[in-house]
Every structure is written in structure tokens, then in C-alpha cells.
Design brief:
By secondary structure, the chain is of the alpha+beta class. It has 20 helices and 22 strands. The strands form four sheets. Strands 13, 14, 15, 16, 17, 18, 19 and 22 form an eight-stranded mixed sheet that branches. Strands 3, 4, 5, 6, 7, 8 and 9 form a seven-stranded mixed sheet that branches. Strands 1-12-11-2-10 form a five-stranded mixed sheet, covered by helices on one side. β3 and β4 (about 260-265) form a beta hairpin. α2 packs across α10 (about 165-175), α4 (about 60-70) packs across α8 and α13 crosses α18 (about 380-390). The structure holds adenosine monophosphate. Adenosine monophosphate binds next to β2.
Length: about 575
């Protein structure tokens, strides 16, 4: 397949406003690709060269791309910059300057290899090299390809193709329906690499996909927690439980392979450098290969206190890592082990895994075992929850002692319990921003008046509206939202967004915010949970508590199913049986 052919598909995907069409178009593209092509192509449609957890970015800034376009089309930098000012998108600038360059025969695989060379250029003279390599690539392609290449290079090719859409399309391409999605998703939960799955599926079929194993160095999709309203409900449903503090930090999966250690976040990013103390601590462990799961949290020596999420998240900033490590050292509470010395441990009962955690990290002062107590008593659980809250923690996570680790699953093997303030939902929800309304008065200065928030409809890989959001942000945060929104705004409703309300500006669903609300109410205005003529759900008195994009992808937002369950629990609380 040539890159020009791929570009025709990228154009089609870009103009699609229906999710079913996205899946079908992508499936058609897949049926035309060979096992060699399908891996690079799968990364490229998501604007990448490698899976999300590999920190390889083409990483050309606007200035460099302007210079490369100028070089490719023998135009002055100033002329390119002027066109950019007019068109607002360097991709369109490149397409215009490419004029009527005829369709080229560069294969997808070669373009991928050449973009990898650009990404890999480092050291003295690398800026020049990147510019020249990119310019020579642009010179060889047709206008549509130039447009998409430029967007990829800038990290702005966002067609809104989520991972579940890729999995559905793979299934469609082979079977004509979605029936293979569970098998493909199972493999995805173990390896987190869509390109690898696509290639394996194309060359080895279903059996080889099923045989894809957990491996050190590739993150596993995190096991997630369900909610229950109170300790009574927990004991009624789970019986004997292991209770742990719930730390409000950042989920980390630590992979050790000899001296090589990598740290991944829950949204599959590589945090190895940013959380250098954890890396160093894992290198000290005696086992050869390990995968540990836990929560990293910043600790203030002066206050002798664990710090809230936002401060832990501030450690993510690349610069000043060493100074930050001094001022806000991190520890990680390790609450699981998934792999040790070549052995997959995910099938072992939780209690046995936790005993191994104690053994493996014994003696470390940075990797600490998350304490547990076991109980089947409502009183003991209530007391432990209150203890945790009084120590400034979020609450507790309760786990079934005999449960295995189910990658990517959210079920009642793990249940989170947080403070219950009367009149409020007993937990926050994570929403994705899907649009905004222009403001009046003071807020108009920031360009945003109210936000439209959505939840994730996991079955259909869509974002359904649930509430407008207006309060909870400081002036600085409104400004921050405005800056992000400028980069995310799109002309039409994105294909994966489902909303009856039409905001002034649609946003690509990317920013995740944590929201507290008083209650969930039925609402005909929102699409979250709407079935046929039945109304959807809305949030009453929502307020933003924090920005969560640091550790959550849009697909990690609260799901429609969770909202329906929270609504059910809320109704039960109001009308005790
Ligand atoms: P939430 O993000 O509110 O859905 O809560 C689930 C998150 O709590 C997990 O993804 C972890 O990042 C975090 N967490 C904190 N402490 C624990 C613990 N002891 N066990 C499991 N998860 C924990």
C-alpha cells in the first residue's frame, strides 16, 4: 500500500461523523493491507510511529516544520508563516504548496521507516538533519499526503480513532462483524500494543492472538475498581475482604528486566525518567524480572504528609526533575505483583500475590507494601475507612482475597469506598470535555463560559453528554482550559461524540476532569444512558475538582454503565428497602 492510498483513507476518516462509518472505513483499509504493512499503519492512523507506551515522538515543532515546508517547496520561511497565519493549519499549508504534485508511490512502510529516522535523529546537527529528512519526504508526496505527514510530525493527527474502534475494525475486516472484539481485547489487555495485535492477527490468526503473553517491558492494562455506596453494601456483596488505604497519587506499573527498569502510568505513558526514584529503587531489588503495580505519591518531609494528587502530578514536568525529587520525593505503595522471574502471576489469588509483594520489596524505603487488614465486619471496615480519611487519604480499596488479576477489567473484585458526605454522590466522576459555550461577563475574557462534559460509552466507544460545567475552576484554570480548548476545537461534532446539545464549539474528546456533583437525575437533554425514548442521565450541581489528564485517557473516564449503577445506588439510599 502506498502512503498516498493511506492518505485517501485518512481524508475519509477525517470527514466521517458516524462511529459505525469509522469502523467500516477502517476495516476496508485493513482488508487492503498486508501483514507487513498493518503494524506501522495501525500506529500511523493514531498519529504515532510506535505503541503509546514507547516514548518515540516525531517531535517536530512548528518552527522546524515551517522550515522544512519552505525547503521542500522552495519557498521563503516568511511566506510559509504567512500562509499559516491565514490557514491556521500547517497541514493545509503544505497541501497548498505541494500544488499538483502527482500521487507518489512511496510505500506506507518506507514512510514509516523514514519518520522513525527523523524521530531518532539526536545530538549535534540533529535539528538540521530532521528538517532536511522531513523536507525530502514532503517533496516526494502528493498534497493530501503532505497534509497528513505534517500533522503527524506535529503530533496533531487526531482522527478520533480510539483503541476500541481499532479492535472493532480488525474484527470487521476478518469476520464482517464485531464478534472477535472480546478475543482481540483480551490480548490488548495483556500487551497494550495495537500494532502488535494487528500484525499477529494478520499473520497468525486468532490462535496466535490468544497466545500473546504478558511480557516485561510492555504495560498491562490496569485492573480497576468498582464502587459501592457504603461498608454494609461491601460486606453484603463481598463477605471477607482485604482492606487497603486508597492513596490519591498516580498509578504506576513498574517493570524490571535485569538492570533495565521502566515505569508506566495507567494511561500507558512512560514515566521512567520523571519518577526516577522509583526506577532507582526497583533496580536495587534482587529478582531478575518483575512487574509490580502500585500508586506513586509525593511525600512532604517538612509536613510529614502525603500530598494531594495535583502535587504528585506536578512531578511529571520534565524539567527540574532532580530538584523536584529533592523537594517532593516520591514513594510507591505497591499493592500487586503480576510477574516474577519469567512467571505470570495474574492467576494467583490476591492474598498470595500480596505475600509475594512483601517478599520482593522487603527492605526498600521507596517501594513500600500497601498495608491490608482482613475483615468481614461492617464495624471494622467502617473504622478503617474513617481512619484512612482522617489521615488525609481518599478512602479505602477493598479487594477479594481470592481474586485473580484481571487486566483491564473493572469489577467487584476491587471496590473503592470514599467519604460519604450527605447529599452528595459518594464519589467523584471523571468527565471528558466535549464542547464549550461562550461566556458572558468576566468569564468571557477567558473565551469559555460553560463546558460540556461527557462520560464514556465503552460498548460503543463513544462519549455521551451528561452535564454542563461552570463552577469549581480558578481564573488561572479557566485560562488553562481556554488554551487547551484552542488546540482541541473542531468544526463539526467529532464522530465519537454523542450529544443532543450543540455547544458553541466542539472539542476533540481529550481533556479529563474530575467532578463532584450532588446527584444524578434523569434528563431528556443528555445522551448518557439514553435508550430509545428513555431519558439519559444528568449531573446536578457539578463542580470541577481537578484536572485528570495527567493520569487518565478519555477512555478512562467514568462509563455510562458506572453512572447507571451510581444512579441505582442513589435511589436505594433515598428509599431504603
Ligand atoms: P479511581 O481512579 O477513583 O477509579 O480509583 C482507582 C484508582 O485508585 C486506581 O487506579 C489506583 O490508581 C488508585 N489506588 C490508590 N490506592 C489503591 C489501592 N490500595 N489499591 C488499588 N488502587 C489504588
Amino acid at each position: 500500500m502506498t502512503f498516498a492510498e493511506l492518505s485517501v483513507y485518512l481524508d475519509r476518516l477525517e470527514s466521517t461523523s458516524s462511529r459505525n462509518e469509522l469502523v467500516k472505513t477502517l476495516a476496508e483499509l485493513y482488508t487492503k493491507s498486508s501483514p507487513d504493512e498493518i503494524q506501522p499503519l495501525t500506529y500511523q492512523i493514531q498519529g504515532r510511529l510506535v505503541p503509546f507506551f514507547e516514548p518515540v515522538e516525531i517531535g517536530l515543532g512548528e518552527k522546524l516544520v515551517i522550515a522544512a515546508i519552505a525547503q521542500a517547496f522552495a519557498t521563503a520561511n516568511a511566506e510559509v508563516a504567512k500562509l499559516f497565519g491565514r490557514l491556521g493549519d500547517l497541514g493545509l499549508v503544505a497541501a497548498q504548496l505541494a500544488g499538483n504534485a502527482s500521487s507518489s508511490t512511496l510505500p506506507v512502510t518506507e514512510v514509516h521507516a523514514r519518520l522513525m529516522d527523523i524521530a531518532g535523529a539526536a545530538g549535534a546537527g540533529s535539528v538540521e538533519k530532521k528538517r532536511s529528512l522531513f523536507a525530502s519526504l514532503l517533496k516526494q508526496v502528493d498534497p493530501a499526503s503532505a497534509k497528513h505527514l505534517v500533522r503527524m510530525a506535529l503530533g496533531r493527527l487526531r482522527l478520533g480513532i480510539g483503541d476500541p474502534t481499532v479492535l472493532d475494525a480488525l474484527s470487521f475486516a476478518k469476520k464482517g462483524d464485531r464478534s472477535l472484539r472480546p478475543l482481540l481485547e483480551g490480548a490488548y489487555n495483556r500487551v497494550s500494543d495495537l500494532g502488535l495485535i494487528a500484525k499477529t492477527f494478520w499473520s497468525g490468526g486468532e490462535d496466535e492472538v490468544t497466545a500473546l503473553k504478558i511480557t516485561v517491558g510492555r504495560p498491562i492494562r490496569s485492573q480497576l475498581a468498582e464502587r459501592l455506596p457504603n461498608p454494609e453494601a461491601v460486606i453484603r456483596r463481598l463477605g471477607l475482604v482485604a482492606v487497603q488505604p486508597k492513596y490519591d497519587g498516580i498509578r504506576v506499573q513498574i517493570h524490571k528486566n535485569g538492570a533495565a527498569v521502566r515505569v508506566f502510568s495507567r494511561n500507558l505513558e512512560d514515566y521512567t525518567l520523571m519518577f526516577s526514584e522509583l526506577t532507582a529503587a526497583a533496580q536495587q531489588l534482587t529478582d531478575d524480572t518483575l512487574i509490580l503495580d502500585g500508586e506513586a505519591i509525593a511525600y512532604s518531609k517538612e509536613l510529614e504528609e502525603y500530598l494531594p494528587f495535583q502535587l504528585t502530578a506536578s512531578r511529571r514536568r520534565q524539567h527540574g526533575i532532580e530538584q523536584a525529587a529533592q523537594e517532593l520525593p516520591l514513594v510507591a505503595f505497591v499493592f500487586d505483583i503480576l510477574y516474577r522471574n519469567g512467571r505470570d502471576l495474574t492467576e494467583l489469588p490476591y492474598e498470595e500475590r500480596l505475600a509475594l509483594v512483601d517478599e520482593v520489596i522487603a527492605g526498600s524505603t521507596v517501594l513500600l507494601p500497601a498495608p491490608i487488614i482482613k475483615t468481614d465486619s461492617v464495624e471494622v471496615l467502617t473504622k478503617t475507612l474513617l481512619d484512612s480519611i482522617s489521615q488525609g487519604l481518599e478512602g479505602v480499596v477493598v479487594k477479594r482475597p481470592d481474586s485473580k488479576y484481571q487486566a483491564g477489567a473493572r469489577n467487584f473484585n476491587w471496590v473503592k469506598l470514599k467519604r460519604h458526605t450527605s447529599g452528595e454522590l459518594n464519589d467523584t466522576v471523571d468527565l471528558v470535555l466535549i464542547g464549550y459555550y461562550f461566556g458572558k461577563g468576566k468569564r468571557a475574557d477567558f473565551g469559555v463560559g460553560a463546558l460540556l462534559g461527557g462520560v464514556y460509552d465503552a460498548d460503543n466507544d463513544r462519549f455521551a453528554s451528561i452535564t454542563k460545567l461552570g463552577t469549581g475552576l480558578s481564573d488561572a484554570e479557566w485560562r488553562q482550559i481556554h488554551e487547551r480548548a484552542d488546540q482541541l476545537q473542531v468544526d463539526q461534532r467529532p464522530a465519537r461524540v454523542d450529544s443532543i446539545l450543540v455547544p458553541d464549539v466542539w472539542l476533540k474528546p481529550e481533556v479529563v476532569v474530575e467532578v463532584m456533583a450532588d446527584e444524578i437525575t434523569p434528563s431528556p437533554r443528555h445522551t448518557a444512558g439514553r435508550v430509545g425514548d428513555e431519558p439519559g442521565f444528568a449531573l446536578r450541581f457539578p463542580r470541577i475538582v481537578s484536572f485528570r489528564s495527567a493520569d487518565k485517557r478519555p477512555e478512562d473516564a467514568t462509563t455510562v454503565k458506572e453512572i447507571a449503577e451510581l444512579f441505582r445506588q442513589q435511589r436505594q439510599r433515598k428509599q431504603p428497602a
